[in-house]
Structure formats: C-alpha cells, structure tokens
Amino acid sequence: MLLWVSPRGPGEWSAELATQTGNFGTFPQLVGEDTYAQISPLFDQSVEVVHDLLGTRFLSRFKGLPCPFVEPTGALSLSNRYYPPQSTQDQLLQAVAPVVETLLSQECLSQPVRTAILNTADRPFVFEMDEKGHLCFTTLSGKRPEKAFVNSLPKAGTYFLGEILSELGWRNSDIHMSPFSLTDYRGRSLDEKLSKARQLSYPIGFDASVQFLKPGQFSVGHIAFSGRNRKLLNNFKVLLAVRRWRDCLASFMYFEAKRIALDPQRFAAEKSAWVSGETPQEKFIG
Amino acid sequence: MDGENLFRGPCPSAEDLKNGRYICLVGAAQLLGRFHSDSFQHKLARKFNLPVLNLSVPAAGPEFALSPKLRPYLENAQLTIVQVMSGRSIGYDEYPGGWKTTDLTTGELRPREAVLRSIWETDVEKFGQVLRRWNDN
Questions:
Q1: Does the CA dihedral A158-A159-A161-A165 come out positive or negative?
Q2: In this structure, are residues A185 and A193 in contact, taking their beta carbons and an 8 Å threshold?
Q3: CB contact (8 A) between residue A189 and residue B42
Q4: Which of A117, A160, A217, A267 has the most CB atoms around its CB within 10 Å?
C-alpha cells in the first residue's frame, strides 16, 4: 500500500510552480501530482492523509511542564511545526485501517479468531478459543515452551521485566492478574491503561485466570504467597520483582496521582481525600 | 538495526519474521512516529493484533525502500505500507547521494534543497532541466 502523509495534497505542488516561484513544496518536497500518479499504480492501494500543522507543545511526562527539545541546529525549541501532531497518528489509523483490513482479508492471511463470552457479575468478558476449543486470553504464543508469571511489588519494574520476557520469546497476554480480579489490557494504549483501569477490571480471580494462560505466554500481577498460589504457579517460570519500599511508595504516589487526574471517579466518596489535595504528596497522604 | 540505521521497536519475534506474520512500514520521520510515544505503528499493531516492523528512518529517500538489506523484510510481510518520501532525499547521476549532495559550483557537500535553491536563484532555465531529470529519476 502507498501512503501519502503531508500537510498538502499531491496536486498542491508542481515542477512548474517550483520553476516560477522557487517553492519546493512542504514534505514530501519536490513530489507533485505527476510523480504520485506515476507511482501509485505500482501499489494495490493508495491512501492520502492530509494533516494540519498545528504546533505541538511538548510536556514533561513526569511534571507536566513545558519540555524543550534540541533542534538539528542545536537550538532549543518548545513546539514542533514540521512533524505531524499526535492527532495525525489517529487520523492515519482511521484512514488506513479499512484498506489494511481489505488487503489482509483478500490475501486470506488473517486467521479468523474464535471467541467465547463469559458473563461476569456486571459485564461480559471475551476469551479467545484455541484450535482445541480451550479458552485463553490469546491464541498467539511465543517460542518458549513454559508459561511465565511476573510477580512483583507494585512499581518494582513489573512491565520492565515483562518487556524482557517478550524479548526472550514469551508473548504478553496483556492481562494483569489480582487475587480477586483481572484487568484486561488487551489492545489498549498506555493512556487507556491509565485512564480506564477501572472499566477494564473484571471479577475473575487469580485461581481461575491463571489457568487460561498457554505455554509461551506470560502475565503479571501482585500475588501474595500462599500454598494454593504456589501450587497454581507450579509449572510456571516465576520472576519475583522487589524494590526498596520507599522507592515503590514514591513511584506509586506519582502513578496514582496520574491515574486520578485521568479518572477522577477512581475512588469512592469515602476515599475522596485522595483527590482533594493540591500536590501528588497531599493527594496521596489524604 | 541493519548496520547503518537504527529502527524503532518493538521488533516482531524471530518466529513472526520468519513466518511473515507482521505488517511492515517503510517511510521517513512521519511513519517513524517522531515525538509520539503512542505512534501510528503501535496503534496499527493493536488494531490488527499483528506485530509491526517499522523500517522508517528520518530523511529517508525513495531509494531507501529498495535497499537489498531491507527488501527481504518488505517482501515477506503480510502487508507492506510504503510512504511517499521526499524528492529532496534522492539523487541522480549529476547530483548523487541522499538529502545531501555535492554542490558542483563549490565542491561542498550541502543539503540538496540548498543546492537546488542556488541553481534556481542563478539560472531558472537550468533549474527547470535539473528538476525534470530529477523527477524522471
């Protein structure tokens, strides 16, 4: 598939225009309708995305304050007016997705996924089904023969270890397991994981959820020791992640402040002291 | 990493690469997702539950997609998305190279756009000829 991504359409620049005015066009410079018409027939499909060029301001992920970046010239800049803004990333997906879907199905390359619905107390949870009809979180597995589980203190590097497991050949199930519930992060962005954690939680306890993992997959969670839990993880590669309590607590404070900002209804009224403070420290102490 | 360029991860697993179970992106900084943590690459991977191999690099020109090191990955993918890249990042016999080329009047290595502008400012007719040959390439 050929993809045009630019603040202008292919027809808005031509060699004649450049000869008359010295205007080489915005990105992709020196490419106009003629060239585009010559190359697009070489592809099965072509998609054009014309985006705006509103300056994107960069904010610190830690403090939310303006954050400069270094230009190729060495100068510091606070906003970008050359590269597409974040909205273009969504615009691209919106424009491309129907064509990608068609092309994948034409080639009969995507395998249909069989699913099953489990009606939990408040809403349905969707499982996939493997070739034998067994329920699982995903039918896709890594090359490793074992199942794996990252058991950690919160903010002790749970997902960092998860990334290492992915590199080593396990596939992330994207399910966060807790003693009495699970959080379904399948197909969710980082922002959604933070802002929708409550909505993505299902009352499926650890003793049930851990059984839906397949060999070559892993999950993460914060599971206390018990004889039963040890038995449930008997055939797993278990990675235990611990960190200094103070560091966990400090990290958790910022993490929770961020989640509350994105989802103010996160805590019930009786715990509203969490959200009434001005600073993350005040919110946390309550 | 292909020995010359650094690419944006995550990389599909060796098994997925071998079985062609991935979508391949080839382009410049726009498809690299410069300045965006949740870029088009990540959104596409989530939407189709398929790994995405992103072979985009800043300032890449049209010739980049034809690199013999990259071609096997493009050809083996379930689907390859190629971005229309900038004409200022491709050369031809008189002005070879990527986004920088040798200014024939000074012998200096300069951004191609600056070289073109100099030609336009000094000789519009020659500029027209250069541009036509460039576009033909």
A1: positive
A2: yes
A3: yes
A4: A217
